[in-house]
């Protein structure tokens, strides 16, 4: 008769990061581990001879040692019908036996050899484990099958070796298992009481603490969410016809267009700072362009600068007049004026004035008593748009001041000039303009004492990518994919200005975006982590593999989705 299994370190595995070819790219990863003969020294940050490729998602004090169980190896051997899964295949440093994810709890401490360890979190859902096993859906399966594995931090450094017995020295606070904590983050129907328990576990890593705190904040907020679903409620799905009510020239190159409904009904309320995406009949397929609202209210107003060689802006200037009809998606965007009462800095350059002008309108409509600093940069007085309008709005606010900088006279203000303004250090700043301007002014505002977390900016065009481990970023601007196009539904990437027909050669919309060098964001690539979540402006999708938890209404996980009809994505 067999007795209970004695928890044991079966294999100690290490490996240094390497560059691995993958789908025409290069991935820098430490997922490839091989067994070594011990004893080996375990230190605070990792094991001697071991390393991690992506320190944003792996490694560090909280994730110094990755642990996986032989029992899970046996499970996956049966699941995949494979017999080639050797210790280290799942990227773990310690292959152990006798301690399942249902049994091990966050905060548990264990002595192995000379060292002592503490359990800090489950495995991170990362696409590289799928690369290692040749199973792209592996991150999804690890969560769905409740077999993630877990991380140790090193409490006491020391030598360890294969065959060492594993002895628990302390039970973690609240005894919440690794499997339960993993499900709490990645699976639906969360137990709120369990969330409150999780954030009360000191040993839980800070990243997971923050994620659970945000989930609790969403649950506890009056609306049940930290912010409304942008572009869905209020708003509408897809595109609708709006009529031009009025146009007005603001400068030699800037035209304002006021839009209203075609049937006289009220427009949904937009947040000051959000943008409209227009479908402009200036080509086939009709190009998409996004323009910030320069004021909100009974009508939506956009203000468009005519760009040299700008096909769409030229068409708008030459063709839109009162009575014209154009298709628009609902206002959306996360750059908008908050409800705080702190001092506010509205800073812009060129046509970047439009979203912060909408914020100034909102402050004036509220008769706000906040300290308001209006700072605008333009080439010269002739190119200045909205000068009189801004002056009237500033004059209506009791604690507002303005400053306009002309680059033709003194150049763009630098850090010293911004610091000399005496901006309040507790201000919330909103920036909009060219990318380099925003980077420079963010540094200048931080140098003037404003905390970086209180500096918000609007980036025109695609968002910065999140591609963990990818070492060779695209060198080309977004483009149609190389080779023959597909014949399926049209997929439009609104921020990137690309429309391409779908082909089943791609496993997901994410893969199509990558083929077009559209900047993307991902981590698991299998419908778990939600890093790839993208607003769905128009159309419908299906999931090739159902996500473990569906994203918010009006958004899509592009790593697992393909179009069922033509789609427009805010990407």
Compact description:
This protein is 21% helix and 28% strand.
Structural notes for this entry:
Strand 22, helix 12 (435-447) and strand 23 form a beta-alpha-beta unit. 21% of the residues lie in helices and 28% in strands. The protein contains 13 helices and 30 strands. The protein folds into 4 domains: 8-220, M1 Pyruvate Kinase, Domain 3 (Beta Barrel), CATH 2.40.33.20; 239-332, Beta Barrel (Elongation Factor Tu (Ef-tu), domain 3); 344-459, 3-Layer(aba) Sandwich (Rossmann fold); 489-569, Beta-grasp domain (Ubiquitin-like (UB roll), Roll). It is of the alpha+beta class.
Distance between the termini: 61 Å
Main CATH class of the largest domain: Mainly Beta
CATH architecture heading of the largest domain: Beta Barrel
Helix content: 10-25%
Largest sheet: 8 strands, mixed
Strand content is 25-35%
Identify low-pLDDT runs.
223-234
Name of the CATH superfamily of the largest domain:
PK beta-barrel domain-like
Q: How many individual helices? A: 13
| Count of extended strands | 30
Q: Give me the Rg, rounded.
A: 27 Å
Q: Strands across the major sheet, in which order? A: 4-1-7-6-10-9-8-12
Q: What is the total number of structural domains? A: 4
Residue-averaged pLDDT, rounded? Answer: 91
The outline comes out as globular
GO molecular function: 2 iron, 2 sulfur cluster binding; molybdenum ion binding; oxidoreductase activity; pyridoxal phosphate binding
Organism: Mycolicibacterium tusciae
Protein name: Sulfurase
Keywords: 2Fe-2S, Iron, Iron-sulfur, Metal-binding
């Amino acid at each position: 008769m067999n007795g209970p299994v004695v928890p044991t370190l079966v294999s100690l595995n290490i490996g240094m990061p390497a560059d691995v070819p993958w789908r025409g790219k290069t991935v820098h990863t430490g997922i490839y581990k091989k067994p070594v003969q011990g004893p080996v020294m375990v230190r605070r940050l990792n094991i001697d001879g071991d390393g991690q490729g992506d320190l944003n998602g792996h490694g560090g004090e909280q994730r110094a040692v990755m642990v996986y169980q032989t029992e899970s190896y046996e499970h996956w051997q049966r699941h995949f019908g494979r017999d080639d899964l050797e210790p280290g295949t799942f990227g773990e440093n310690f292959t152990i036996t006798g301690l399942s994810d249902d049994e091990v709890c966050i905060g548990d401490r264990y002595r192995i050899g000379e060292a002592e360890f503490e359990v800090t979190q489950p495995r991170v859902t990362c696409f590289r484990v799928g690369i290692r096993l040749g199973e792209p859906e592996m991150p999804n399966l690890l969560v769905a099958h409740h077999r993630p594995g877990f991380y140790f931090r090193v409490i006491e450094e020391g030598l360890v070796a294969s065959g060492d017995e594993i002895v628990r020295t302390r039970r973690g606070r609240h005894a919440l298992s690794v499997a339960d904590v993993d499900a709490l983050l990645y699976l639906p129907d969360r137990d709120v009481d369990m969330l409150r328990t999780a954030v009360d576990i000191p040993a839980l890593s800070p990243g997971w603490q923050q994620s659970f705190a945000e989930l609790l904040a969403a649950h506890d907020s009056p609306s049940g969410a930290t912010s409304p679903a942008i572009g869905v409620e209020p708003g509408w799905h897809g595109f609708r016809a709006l009529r031009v009510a009025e146009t007005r020239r603001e400068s030699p190159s800037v035209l304002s267009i006021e839009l209203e409904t075609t049937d006289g009904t009220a427009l949904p309320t937009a947040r000051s700072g959000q943008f409209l995406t227009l479908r402009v009949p200036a080509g086939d397929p009709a190009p998409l362009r996004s323009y910030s609202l320069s004021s909100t209210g009974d009508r939506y107003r956009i203000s468009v600068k005519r760009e040299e060689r700008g096909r769409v802006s030229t068409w708008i200037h030459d063709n839109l007049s009162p009575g014209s009809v154009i298709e628009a998606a609902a206002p959306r965007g996360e750059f908008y004026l908050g409800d705080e009462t702190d001092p506010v800095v509205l800073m812009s350059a060129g046509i970047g004035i439009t979203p912060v002008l909408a914020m100034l309108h909102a402050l004036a409509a509220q008769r706000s008593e906040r300290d308001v600093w209006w700072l605008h940069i333009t080439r010269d007085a002739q190119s200045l748009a909205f000068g009189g309008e801004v002056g009237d709005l500033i004059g209506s606010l009791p604690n507002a001041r303005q400053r306009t900088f002309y680059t033709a006279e003194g150049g763009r203000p630098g850090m010293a000039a911004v610091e000399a303004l005496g901006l309040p250090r507790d201000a919330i700043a909103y920036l909009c303009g060219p990318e380099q301007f925003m980077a420079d002014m963010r540094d200048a505002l931080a140098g003037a004492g404003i905390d970086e977390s209180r500096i918000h900016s609007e980036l025109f065009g695609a968002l910065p990518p999140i591609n963990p481990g990818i070492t060779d970023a695209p060198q080309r601007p977004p483009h149609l994919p190389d080779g023959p196009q597909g014949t399926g539904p049209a997929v439009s990437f609104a921020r990137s200005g690309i429309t391409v027909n779908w082909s089943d050669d791609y496993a997901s919309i994410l893969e199509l975006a990558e083929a077009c060098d559209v900047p993307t964001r991902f981590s698991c690539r299998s419908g778990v982590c939600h890093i790839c979540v993208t607003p769905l402006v128009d159309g419908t999708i299906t999931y090739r593999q159902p996500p473990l938890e569906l994203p918010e209404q009006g958004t899509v996980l592009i790593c697992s989705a393909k179009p069922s009809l033509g789609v427009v994505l805010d990407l």
